[in-house]
Amino acid sequence: MTDRKISVIVPVYNSGPFLLETLDSLACQSFRDYEVILVDDGSTDESPRIIDDVCARSKRFRALHTKNGGAYKARLLGIREAKGEYIAFCDSDDLYDPDTLEKLFLRAKTTGADITFCGFVREEMKTGRLCSPEMITFGNRVYAHPELTDILPRIAGSMNHKLFRRELLGHALILENPPRISEDLLFLCSLYPFIQKIAFLPEALYRYRIRAGSAISHVTAKDRDRILNNMLLTRAYVFREDDSPEMRYVMDCVAFVQIGVWQVIVMTNSGENYLRTRRFAKQWLDRHAPGYKQAGHSLSWNRAHDNVQLRILLERWLFGTPLMRPAFRAYDLIIRTGRIRFPW
User: Could you tell me if 29 and 174 lie in one domain?
Assistant: First the structure.
């Protein structure tokens, strides 16, 4: 039974230096009918004390303390305890704009969407520099079947900057041994067969802060293998619900972006050999997700469909050349240090 409009779930693990700023951004929302569930995932720093202090001062905040099990299990615990009609997520070092919940809720109610997206902007915590906004070029579009499968490959990723209808989350696959990273991508993918409508809000209302030592700054072969094992489990779950060619294409696109692009770049930046990592990714994709060879469709298809998969098409072109790594390094350098903006 729900008695709040929105529940915001915040997994917390050793976030002491950043946590208060995050909680302040959540406390100052213009929308008032919401709760914040702080899931302390076995922190060993001052985070538990900060959480308890904030909860003692405001009934809007609730604390859940559990042994360390990772962000995936912390989110699941938060979902079970949530009282909201809708559920949102926030990392413990990120920030909401003051009107984030208000705008997301209004958009969700007026469209009837299962998931409502806003854009986000990346901030380098060390310098305070803001990078180009992302997920803002869809305008005020609402996607439903049959167009829905066109957009699904583009939305795989973080659970943040989204507002979920509570009932939708009940369909998620529960992984027994979730990976340390990319666990939110797998959670989101497991919902694909059950999504009926997605709405976008073309404003960057979430600030994703990048700091040294975060989970995604270092990825090992062991991390990769754990992700791949869980990717196969997630794919099997999805295909039991929807084994259509369209859904298989969607899941192959997601696998390509995660394994062929993101993992190759991040693992190489972590010290792994680029050519060996890329060769491994291609072999895995050829075996398990062969539809990746059509990822992004064609240039003419994108022109006829608002360029919704143009970025994936460009990544597929780069994947087949030695230019992928230098191209992504140049892109990263430009958006982090230059004045050129590449909103997408």
Answer: yes
Q: What does the alpha-carbon distance between residue 227 and residue 249 come to, in Å, rounded to a whole number?
A: 20
Task: Give the number of other CB atoms < 10 A from CB of residue 271.
Answer: 8
Q: Do 258 and 198 belong to one domain?
A: no
Are 277 and 268 in contact by the 8 Å Cβ rule? The answer is yes
Residue 343 falls inside a structural domain: no
> Does 140 have pLDDT greater than 60?
yes
DSSP secondary structure, 50-116, as one string: HHHHHHHH-TTEEEEEE----HHHHHHHHHHH--EEEEEE--TT-EE-TTHHHHHHHHHHHHT-SEE
Residues 193 and 260 reside in one and the same domain: no
Question: Is 342 domain-assigned?
Answer: no
24-40 residue pLDDT tens = 999 999 999 999 999 99
Show the tokens assigned to 201. Answer: 């809000």
Shared domain for 87 and 195, answered yes or no, is: yes
Here the tokens at position 324 are 């992928």
Listed residues 183, 214, 245: the one ending a domain: 214
CB 210 within 8 A of CB 124: yes
Structural domains counted in the chain: 2
Cα gap 152→308, rounded to integer Å: 10
Q: By residue range, what is the domain housing residue 270?
A: 218-337
Any idea which residue has 């904030």 for tokens? Answer: 54
d(CA 161, CA 118): 6
- 256 and 150 in one domain? no
* pTM assigned to the model: 0.92
**pLDDT single digits (tens) 192-240:** 999 999 999 999 999 998 875 555 556 788 888 999 999 999 999 999 9
